[in-house]
Amino acid sequence: MNNNSVSVKNDAGLLVLAIRLVIGWTYFSAFWRRTILADKLDPEIAGYIGEKFNHFLPNALGIKPIIQYLVENPDVLWVSMVMFTIIEGIVGLAIIFGFFTRIMSVGVFGLAMGILLGSGWIGTTCLDEWQIGVLGIATGFVLFLTGSGTYSLDNYMMKNKVAITQKKWFTWIGSGMLPISEKLFPKVVLVGSLLMLGMTLMTNQVFHGGLWGTLHNKSVKPIIEITAGKIEQETLSFDVFRTEGVDVYGSWVIAIELLDETNNKVIEYTQTDLAALTKTNIDNYYVAKVKAGKHSLVVPLGAKARLNLKQQAIANLPKGSYTIKITDISGVAWTHKIVN
């Protein structure tokens, strides 16, 4: 029996065939959805994948600076989304067919890690993205250990002694028995498995409080952060940044008020006023955009913008402390104090 041969009953690559096919389709289907079933790579069309990527920004773990750079630079973001989609398609298809399985399993691991760190905090009911991420990194690790078995292109090439399969390093990028001693191999499996478990427990706690403390889900209700408030001449300006809530639709802001020290309304923007705001009033920072909707101001997850509200009454305000109050259609309100 040569180094690349195993009995069918002990063919680990064969035993994980179902996992290989399912995880392969999981990644290839992303390419299929964005390019064949719908055009999700066009920045001008609703459903652009770059906007979904922008949703990851507020609570990403470790890779937030990368995400922020991309969403601040739409051209670079578009190139990255195209490359990301192509890589998902190649990795998924190669895993399905068992072609250079081990190097492609590294791709599975990397893609899953990106999902986990970027969007593991998103999921309204079942911690959706976190589960996808942790299962993806575990699957990538398992496929690296097993390679592909009987029903794979790797196996076909090895049986037919294709030149590349005769190279010593092929087993590290394709399939076959890994050149690791029997004494060391269980330790490799154990250490790798414990690392996968450690990443799972760590992210579960960071994103959701899943080990101790209070359970939390940042996708349940919207939160808007208000910063950098300023009153200057006739203009009230401030930044709004939606950091939590459901990713599939925006927060609907139905009122913006400026209150004085005694909590009296100095100015008020109603639903009708907010729906009438124009691009001159809204300066967006990222790809996901704050914009005037039909009945309110719409603030998508991850969107950040500077609002500039101009009224003559603002110019005549006496010096003092004021409070900006933003109210969502759900009744939730957020405040920010400024000094004139």
Structural description of this entry:
By secondary structure, the protein is an alpha+beta fold. The chain folds into 2 domains: 12-208, no CATH class; 223-339, Macroglobulin (MG2) domain (Immunoglobulin-like, Sandwich). 43% of the residues lie in helices and 19% in strands. The strands form 2 sheets. Strands 3, 4, 6, 7, 9 and 10 form a 6-stranded antiparallel sheet that branches. Strands 1-2-8-5 form a 4-stranded antiparallel sheet. α2 packs antiparallel against α5 (74-97), α5 packs across α6 (101-119) and α6 (101-119) packs antiparallel against α7 (128-146). The chain has 12 helices and 10 strands. The radius of gyration is 26 Å and the shape is elongated. The protein has helices at 12-15, 17-37, 49-55, 64-72, 74-97, 101-119, 128-146, 153-159, 170-173, 185-208, 271-275, 312-315, and strands spanning 223-232, 235-244, 251-259, 265-269, 282-284, 291-292, 297-299, 304-310, 321-328, 333-339.
